Amino acid sequence: MNSALWVLVPVISLVCVATTAVLMVWVAIRGCASADRARVLRATAEVIRAVWGRR
User: Fold this and answer.
1) What does the pLDDT read at residue 55?
2) TM segments (predicted)?
3) Torsion, CA 24, CA 39, CA 42, CA 20, rounded to 10
4) What is the maximum alpha-carbon separation in the chain?
């Protein structure tokens, strides 16, 4: 296997996951009231922590 793939695959995967997270937050915040935005961001942070294994 080419050594460039060993570098590109994790980087591309990370970019895809980060883009998905940003789009999810954007869609969630766009459809809610300003009072609920902190709750949406806190829930998103908890999901990210759970995925990374910190909880």
Assistant:
1) 53
2) 6-29
3) 0
4) 51
Sequence letter at residue 31: G
Give the pLDDT confidence of 2-53 residue by residue, as tens digits. 888 888 998 999 899 889 888 888 888 888 888 888 888 888 888 888 887 7
Residue 17 CA, distance from chain mean position: 6
What the block records as the tokens of 37 is: 């935005």
Instruction: Give the Cα separation of 37 and 6 in Å (integer).
Output: 38
37-52 vs 3-30: helix axis angle to the nearest 10?
A: 150
Cβ-contact 21, 48 below 8 angstroms: yes
